[in-house]
Amino acid sequence: MTPSKPKFAHLPLSTSGPIDCALTGTSVLNTPYLNKGSAFPPDERRVFSLSGLLPRGVQSLEQQVKRAYEQYSTRPNPLAKNTFLTSLKDQNEVLYYKRLIFSGVKLIETHVEEMFSIIYTPTEGDAIQNYSSLFRRPQGCYLSINDPDRVLPDLAQWGRPEDIDYIVVTDGIIEEHRVNHPCEDGEEILGIGDQGVGGILISIAKLVLTTLCAGIHPSRCLPVVLDCGTDNQELLKDELYLGLRQSRVRGRQYDEFVDTFVNSVRKLYPRAYLHFEDFGLRNANGSAARRLLELYRPNIPCFNDDVQGTGCVTLAAILAGLHVSKQKLGDLRLVVFGAGSAGVGIADQIRDAIAAECDISHEEASKQIWLIDKPGLLTTETELSDAQRGFAKDASSWNDQGRDLLSVVKSVRPNVLIGTSTVPGAFTEEIVKAMHEHAPRPIILPLSNPTRLHEATPADLLKWTSGKALVATGSPFDPVSGPWGANGEDVSIDIAECNNSVVFPGIGLGCVLSRARLLTDRMLVAAVEAVSSMSPALQDPTAPLLPGVLSVKEISVRVARSVIKEAVDDDLATERDIPESDGDLDEWIREQMWEPRYRPLRHVQMEGATRSARGELMKAGSVRRTGTF
């Protein structure tokens, strides 16, 4: 019996049916999103002239995955494993993503943390630091601040307006404020400092996560680095360094360069979603990340994961914790320790949610939030950024009170404490117990990465609160057991990870599929509510506050649905015929989510073929990626 055709198989991004291919021979094998390697079936080998180019044995995708994993396992260290996966991605896109999913889902406990650590933090940080020495072939688009006139034509090489859905751009720096931390060089990417052109790997890694977690079509994504120079002297002295050999450009020239890039993107790819990644706080007279976001989000669909993604996933954890502790947002008293881009982004997101929930102004909602940074509690006497100013407390009211974390906790009596400081051990036993005196179920979120920089460990937090703390962390931790049952019996408590991957891919998917004109606060709140509604803790108080990455694709569907519905309600969705019912909308979303499986290839003539059929997606112009060292 012939299977029925999916209801939404007619959509341009449908993942059902065959793929048109106008290439033959080695050209097919050299196109990662068309190549099947040893899995090409006999009929396709004949049609596409591959018979003499492949061994006779025909293998399944699962057999290829097994071989790839065996090869991967022989690599001696994480960086070598990362390099192997990069090479695999350049050869066979389906096998690359199937390899990740095979390890991350089918072999769950054994490999999921390993794979995320290899393709993203911390191993990706090592790859970035060694970018120029490990370089084999270019990936993505490199734009130079010294050639602003080249921005438009260089971006134009990547396709027609309908070819690009998702763009991630970085300038290669990030700064998280470090409260009294010895490392205060300021501008960091995964905690490793200014890495110049090597930042392209962050854009690439982020796009891998969007595909892995939300089915964004990988051949319709574009990673970009804005090469503005570097202040990293080791790179400038390295004869192999591939970026601009000059100090990092700031100020007006930097702003004009970014503006040229954004305007070029909107002209060339008007339906694309723009994701800013790792823009340093001290660039161009303040927070580049926040300032650029506030500048462009009223006019284009754009997003910054460090500011908005972290805020969204943290708010989702807080909402779940408030549900467990039988409280509401109106009851919230929040202290944030570490007022950098992540800390202030979290505060912004929570302030907006309080204002919406309680129908009050942002100014009134901010009174429920206290920020602490290097000088202590941020007050009207503190030197503040524009982003921090809205949370500053009246200095006169703190004349007789300490402004350190312990003093603030004793005075404020918070029920939520968040750490984004990267100061290890900052949440001491005295501080936690002082909080617990007035909060029966304190919500404590030490979010700094990596684990060695956590403000406290879950084991200590639960020990100091007799198992009452509701904990989520910035890195994965094992469950914690202790004598916290009703009769003193041992209870095992699972620890949630505030992983942005459960939020930002679904937000992007919703914007891409709805072709949203903007990404608004209401759409972000809808995404947060979607994630918090899937919290395991809603059914079991000992379960994690957030769903894990193992169910991230279903989370992304729920998030995308909520974002799309909000976009439709606010007349921001430009895509036609979006289904209204939840069931149809979920099916509509899933049909357009790319999956790593081999679809049949259908031979078409080169004349009149699409760029996809000609193997030109994600390639500058029509140049084949043979790649030279």
Automatic annotation (TrEMBL):
Protein's recorded name: Malic enzyme
The Malic enzyme NAD-binding domain, residue ranges: 307-568
Binding site for a divalent metal cation: 277-278, 306
One MF term in the entry's GO annotations: malate dehydrogenase (decarboxylating) (NAD+) activity
GO biological process: malate metabolic process
Source species, domain of life: Eukaryota
Family per record: Belongs to the malic enzymes family.
A Pfam match: Malic_M
UniProt-annotated binding residues for (S)-malate: 449, 499
Record's GO cellular component terms: cytosol; mitochondrion
Note accompanying the cofactor annotation: Divalent metal cations. Prefers magnesium or manganese.
InterPro entries, A to Z: Aminoacid_DH-like_N_sf, Malic_enzyme_CS, Malic_N_dom, Malic_N_dom_sf, Malic_NAD-bd, Malic_OxRdtase, NAD(P)-bd_dom_sf
Active site (record annotation): 120 (proton donor), 206 (proton acceptor)
